[in-house]
Write a structure and sequence with these properties.
The structure holds 2 protein chains of 2 kinds. Helices cover about 70% and strands about 0% of the residues of chain A. Chain A is an all-alpha fold. Chain A starts with a helix and ends in a 9-residue tail after the last helix. In chain B, the strands form 6 sheets. In chain B, strands 1, 11, 12, 13, 14 and 15 form a 6-stranded antiparallel sheet that branches. In chain B, about 10% of the residues lie in helices and about 45% in strands. Chain B is globular, with a radius of gyration of 21 Å. Classes of the chains: A mainly alpha, B mainly beta. Chains A and B meet through helix 1, helix 3, helix 5, helix 6 and helix 7 of A and helix 1, strand 10 and strand 15 of B.
Chain lengths: ~200, ~375
């Protein structure tokens, strides 16, 4: 399973890269698909130091979190079909949540604090926390986020990643590092967009 | 309203399920230690090399364990130089009263890349655990990007006493791209059959940890032994009951071996202190029990050209240097000698087996027993 989820993660990264590049080059859907296909083929075929870009990304990032995979899937669909499934409000809340969670988790796991919050992920504490958050988001009408958090908990209980730690289903450092950038981009886009347009997907 | 009720029903069921799973969290019950069956009466000591002329230019970081009853399996990594692309993990076996077998490659970079489906830049630091029969667990580090501090730990398992090795698996030990968990200390079994693996972290912080791993490589729990930026490469021994001791390599300028005591089978650790054993920022290795602990270390503050054996009879509170294993000055070309990365192992019959890096060219092997230790001045 670990190899499958790792390769799915890498596929999502290259698909996202391909769709982003294609969106810069052309507006035609067919051409966008072709460019994505070319990026995928190149990722598997360009030799890079006795390996290829796909295996390098496998080695560098491993498995992405469930939240990352959902966000990437939303991004790829939005760019390729013009219709995503995550509202901009959902994404803004998720980026803020990831930013805050990452600030609590990553510096501490690297040794900045004596307490290691990552340990909590081996028990039920993180799952309970995510479920509580999920209920709160549902109550406050952020139902997409509530469902995403529920999906994270379900994936963790099912053990679809190779990690046994709940944190790894929820957040990864790539998502944390990109969250502030994506948040700023999204806020700028929102400001530029018609305020009456509502959900932009 | 119906969707709200549905959501709360799902969430409530999930909470109950998680609570149930949570109650099965891993037990830190007393570890099984390799207690001596019968200490020999006649002092035994021998010193040799596992191979005279290596097939590779540079070797380092060896480990040893007994397999299939009374055979020994030693492993190390070697290649044209540390971290080069041709580095592989080598192994050699030895039966009682016989010579070491010709070293062979156990895990190559290509095999690990294939097994883990990723680019592998380099590999090293193998450590071994055996059930006394034919099952052997080998943990070792590898990097895909960057230097050693970005390492992750891998596990390969052999069911034929080290002859062949199954598909290697990468352990998930850290949320930060799984970077910077390394291994050097000897693993041990817990009563429930899970493995206690002393590990360390050296990206940003430099601290020691104990992780619990299932026999198929799932990381189940972890605990920090130390904090901060000064102690790595923990070596752990049992003090009986649920008590443990860890000695660690010191990476700051104080240059003394770091010590911490564990209770509840390693779930909780005391604040670390310094021993009176000097440490030139180099690996140490400890084995023994509550009555006698032995440690092999570089007995200098700044170089690795001396290697000594010290003993503690008071559970690691005080240490007495008993034997000088190596001591050598620079060679004719002015190159410094290096005797480093000891790995001390106590077999079930109570005898000690030590391997260490000898000038980065050979792996030295030392065999002694408790009777020999006790007759030392």
């Amino acid at each position: 399973m670990s190899s499958i989820m790792m390769n799915i993660s890498t596929a999502f990264i290259f698909l996202a890269l391909g769709t982003w590049v294609s969106s810069l080059i052309t507006r035609q859907t067919l051409w966008r698909w072709l460019i994505v296909a070319v990026v995928l083929i190149l990722s598997l075929s360009i030799p890079v130091v006795d390996s290829n870009p796909w295996l390098w990304i496998n080695g560098a990032t491993g498995e992405l979190s469930i939240v990352s995979l959902i966000l990437l899937a939303g991004f790829i669909l939005r760019k390729l079909t013009g219709r995503g499934f995550l509202s901009s409000s959902t994404r803004i809340h998720l980026y803020i949540l990831m930013l805050l969670a990452g600030v609590l988790l990553f510096p501490a796991t690297l040794g900045l604090t004596q307490f290691d919050p990552y340990v909590l992920g081996y028990g039920f504490e993180i799952s309970l926390l995510l479920l509580s958050l999920s209920i709160l988001y549902w109550i406050f009408k952020q139902r997409q986020i509530a469902m995403i958090l529920l999906t994270v908990v379900a994936a963790g209980e099912a053990g679809i990643l190779s990690s046994f730690n709940g944190w790894d289903y929820f957040i990864d450092p790539l998502l944390w590092l990109f969250s502030p950038v994506l948040l700023i981009i999204l806020l700028i886009e929102k400001r530029k967009a018609d305020p009456l347009s509502g959900i932009e997907n | 309203m119906r969707s709200l009720l549905f959501f709360f029903a799902v969430a409530t069921l999930a909470i109950i399920a998680i609570w149930q799973f949570g109650s099965e969290r891993i037990s830190w019950s007393v570890m099984i230690d390799e207690l001596p069956v019968e200490a020999a009466q006649t002092p035994k000591f021998s010193k040799s090399f596992i191979f005279e002329q290596g097939a590779v230019a540079s070797v380092h970081a060896s480990a040893i364990v007994s397999v299939s009853g009374n055979k020994l399996l030693a492993v190390w990594y070697g290649g044209s130089r540390e971290g080069s692309g041709d580095v592989a993990i080598f192994g050699s076996k030895k039966a009682v009263e016989s010579e070491w077998s010709k070293p062979g490659v156990l895990i190559s970079r290509a095999k690990l890349a294939q097994d883990t489906d990723r680019h592998i830049k380099k590999l090293g630091n193998p450590v071994l655990l055996s059930d006394g029969g034919k099952n052997v667990w080998m943990f070792f580090v590898s990097t895909s990007i960057g230097g050693w501090s970005t390492s992750a730990i891998n596990l390969a398992v052999s069911h034929d006493a080290g002859q062949t090795w199954g598909r290697a698996k990468r352990l998930i030990t850290s949320p930060f791209l799984n970077l910077s968990t390394l291994v050097k200390g000897r693993p041990f079994f817990y009563q429930d059959g899970t493995i206690g693996l002393p590990v360390y972290h050296e990206l940003a912080g430099k601290f020691a940890e104990l992780i619990r791993v299932s026999q198929d490589g799932a990381v189940l729990d972890k605990v920090r032994i130390t904090h901060g930026r000064y102690s790595i490469q923990p070596s752990i021994a049992s003090l009986g009951g649920d008590r443990l001791i860890a000695l660690m390599r010191n990476t700051n300028t104080i240059r003394y071996v770091v010590r911490a005591y564990g209770k509840q089978g390693g779930k909780a650790w005391s604040k670390s202190t310094y021993t009176d054993l000097p440490n030139p920022n180099s690996a140490i290795s400890m084995a023994g029990d509550k009555d006698l602990l032995a440690v092999v270390y570089n007995d200098l503050k700044h170089d690795r050209n001396q290697l000594a054996l010290a003993v503690s009879m008071d559970k690691g509170l005080s240490w007495n240097k008993r034997f000088q294993l190596e001591s050598s000055g620079p060679d004719e070309a002015g190159n410094k000698s290096e005797f480093s990365y000891p790995y001390l192992y106590r077999a079930k019959n109570g005898e000690f087996h030590l391997v260490y890096t000898w000038q980065r060219k050979r792996i030295a092997y030392v065999h002694f027993n408790q009777a020999w230790l006790e007759q030392l001045p």
